[in-house]
Amino acid sequence: MLKVAKFGGSSLSSSAQFEKVKNIIDSDPSRRVVVVSAPGKRSSDDNKVTDLLYLCNAHLKYDVSYDSIFEMIEERYMDIRKGCGLNTDLDSEFETIRSHLKKGMSVEYLVSRGEYLNARLMAEYLGFTFVDAADVICFRYDGHIDYNRTNSGLVQALEANGSIVIPGFYGSLPNGEIRTFSRGGSDVTGAIVSAALGADVYENWTDVSGILMVDPRIVSNPKSISRVTYDELREMSYMGAAVLHEDTVFPVRRKNIPVNIRNTNKPEDPGTIIMESFEEDCEGDISRFITGITGKKNFTTVEVYCNHNESVSKLLQSTLGLCDRYGIEPEMLSSGIDSFSLLFPTEKLEHSKYEFAGELKGTDGVDNMKVQDNISIIAIVGRQMAYKSGISGQIFQALGEENISVRMIKQSADEINIMVGVSNDDFARAIKTLYNSFA
């Protein structure tokens, strides 16, 4: 049995959090591979170490002293070392980093040091071997992972050492230069490591007990989701749910490795399991047919009405060609007998809205058109919805009872996602209403 345990920044923000991590690792001998992020915030008014490192670079760029910021970074690691009773030679590490701090330096090297230093401390604390991600996470020059070299290096590192700690977020190019993932990339490191080593489970430890059914900023103390498929996760992430880094799923999904989202502060909670499918998902076994509710604000609808001399399909085709010319791709479209509607993120229309609308209105076959801003899209996601009739009717009824007007509705072909459009002003109220109706 092998578990890869990745810990996020909030789980590693202080020596007290380090102790929680050690207790988690010590409680299960199969947790032999640990991936760490840089220290996160200790409180709401604190700073993430990675943000401070980016700030150092900004000061360098504009020839402003970075000393006070770097001292804050040094202090964070010194506090962790002292609180955990460690002996890691941080002074020489900081000296090495400072020697690189000059205008034109590699920003990716600088910001990767947050994970690097945290992994050095965690390795000593756990009694594991530190393995630098630069030695085992191998990028090609095109920015993609070289899986052959990466997999070979990781397997050798584990076989040689038994238990290892790897910093997340970065790797190296063939010439040894540091290359980072986008922010949140430690999730990706954990997935790559899990796939390379054929882990039985990839545990992603954070500060919530799994994936929540709805945004806790909108609904207080929402229920967590015990099980979710990769397809549902993709739908929820696409519609704005802050779940995992978008590139995390691919490596583990390809190997069919379960992902378990866990809470470092409540390790007894089982969290959320993410898998390709679940055997009990069949008609007649439906406990909660809605998995999650999420959404995004600030969309614009463009409704086009055809005259009787032009077919909707032909006019829609020319309209999509116009969208392509303006570089604005619609998120959704729906059509009727004499009309169709396109939905765009408002920000994508900002610089060409009137030109696009004017040219579209002058297109042969267009009888009339309407443009409406301040639209929100809410997604109701659930693999079980295909087995439950009348979901759309229940959605309309629940929203109607709260006098929330539905501007549009769409159901995905695989029946795991129903999207409704409402006014921005009704966004939070609509999500609360749907959650209270279906949770």
**Order of neighbouring strands in the sheet with most strands:** 3-4-2-1-7-9-10-8
Highest-level CATH class of the largest domain: Alpha Beta
* Overall SS class: alpha/beta
Tally of domains? 2
Report Rg: 25 Å
The name of the CATH superfamily of the largest domain reads Acetylglutamate kinase-like
Secondary structure tally, helices = 15
EC number: 2.7.2.4
Binding site for ATP: 6-9, 206-207, 217
Domain ACT: 380-439
Protein name: Aspartokinase
Description:
- With 439 residues, the chain is an alpha/beta fold.
- The strands form three sheets. The chain has an eight-stranded mixed sheet, sandwiched between helices. It has a six-stranded antiparallel sheet with strand order 12-13-11-14-16-15.
- It folds into two domains: 3-207, Carbamate kinase, CATH 3.40.1160.10; 292-438, VC0802-like (2-Layer Sandwich).
- The chain has helices at 15-26, 49-61, 67-84, 90-100, 107-126, 133-136, 147-161, 186-197, 230-238, 249-254, 312-326, 346-349, 353-361, 391-401, 427-438; strands at 3-7, 31-36, 129-130, 164-167, 170-172, 178-180, 201-206, 227-229, 259-263, 272-275, 292-306, 332-335, 339-345, 366-381, 408-411, 417-423.
- The radius of gyration is 25 Å and the shape is globular.
